[in-house]
Amino acid sequence: MPFTLNHTHLTSFLGPCAQGEWEPFLSALDPNVHWVIADPSPNGEYPLGVYNVESWKEKIRAPLAKVLATPIKMVVDEVDIIDLKAIVECSGYATQKNGKPYNNKFCWIFIFDEETGKVVKIREYINTALVREVAGGQ
User: Fold this and answer.
1) How crowded is residue 27: how many other Cβ atoms within 10 Å of its Cβ?
2) Which residue has the higher pLDDT, 81 or 128?
3) What does pTM read for this prediction?
């Protein structure tokens, strides 16, 4: 039976992010997800580019984790579902080790596989200048 995308499915893996728990989110992604942050041809400009789960953990998550004192708590602001596509607007909150806030806005466009229900494509829009400022030197 083909997968049907709904709010319950999204909440199952996005809800825990509000507590800073990201493993359900990562488990909802196909390991070979095609994850584009802002621009697929970034010319080496951090954090723009194309990632899968492992390269995202290494090149995006790890540098941020080095400078954050708390996990990012991501709250869903708005969701729109169109067939196997979800457009999710979020706000993320964390504290840097230097005591300053790290508050960012996200817009994720997820495409789900109709058989597995896993996210197979992500287009992410984020304040990349803030990410560079906070973690770009790592």
Assistant:
1) 12
2) 81
3) 0.89
